[in-house]
Amino acid sequence: MDILKIEVVTELDSETHEIKYNIAGQIYINDKLVVSHKEYPIDLMQLHTSIMQVGMYDFWTCSCGDAGCAGLWRTIQVKHEQKNIIWNFTKLPFLPDGTFIFDQEMYKNEIDKVIGQTNRIARYNKQANIPFEICPNPAFIELDKLMNY
């Protein structure tokens, strides 16, 4: 069984030199960073949807939210079998072709934890009038309305 960990990264915006925090996530599988959030940020909305629905997903994307903009035209196939969530993928520039199998409960808990962290950081920054941007989905902060925290 593979282990999924997602890290929430907050940092000052280095491109604009303004005091603005970027909030992004990056995925570790079996304690190894898959790819830096600076190269390909993850789409937490798609990860959240994959908990409940099988299908084709673009978990890694451009900071604008369009995977094609980042040169990623291959999606990850997500299947649900028994109590597992399975990723099948090919031709990602940062992963060899293959399959990952995650325990469904662990997968859900990890994604829910990161959504909660992201929303708490965003709410704090908003209340403290600290400029911030959630990368790649600015509307992500509203997702917590769908969940019980």
Describe the structure.
By secondary structure, the protein is of the alpha+beta class. 22% of the residues lie in helices and 30% in strands. The protein is built from two helices and eight strands. The strands form two sheets. Strands 1, 2, 3 and 8 form a four-stranded mixed beta sheet that branches. Strands 4-5-6-7 form a four-stranded antiparallel beta sheet. Strand 1 (4-12) and strand 2 (21-29) form a beta hairpin. The longest helix has 24 residues, at 104-127. The chain is globular and about 45 Å long. Residues 145-149 have low confidence and may be disordered.
Short summary of the structure?
With 149 residues, the chain is an alpha+beta fold. The chain is built from two helices and eight strands, in the order βββαββββαβ.
Which key features would you list for this structure?
4-stranded antiparallel beta sheet; alpha+beta; about 20% helix; 4-stranded mixed beta sheet; disordered C terminus
The overall strand count is 8
Provide the structure class.
Answer: alpha+beta
How much β-strand is present in the residues?
25-35%
Largest sheet: 4 strands, mixed
Helix segment tally: 2
Helix content: 10-25%
Mean pLDDT: 83
Oligomer: single chain
Low-confidence stretches: 145-149
Radius of gyration: 15 Å
Anisotropy-based shape: globular
H/E element order: EEEHEEEEHE
Q: Report how far the terminal alpha carbons are from each other.
A: 28 Å
What is this structure's SSE topology?
Blueprint: E1 4-12, E2 21-29, E3 32-33, H1 44-52, E4 55-57, E5 76-81, E6 84-89, E7 98-103, H2 104-127, E8 132-134
Parallel strand pairs: 2-8
Antiparallel strand pairs: 1-2, 2-3, 4-5, 5-6, 6-7
Helix pairs in contact: 1-2
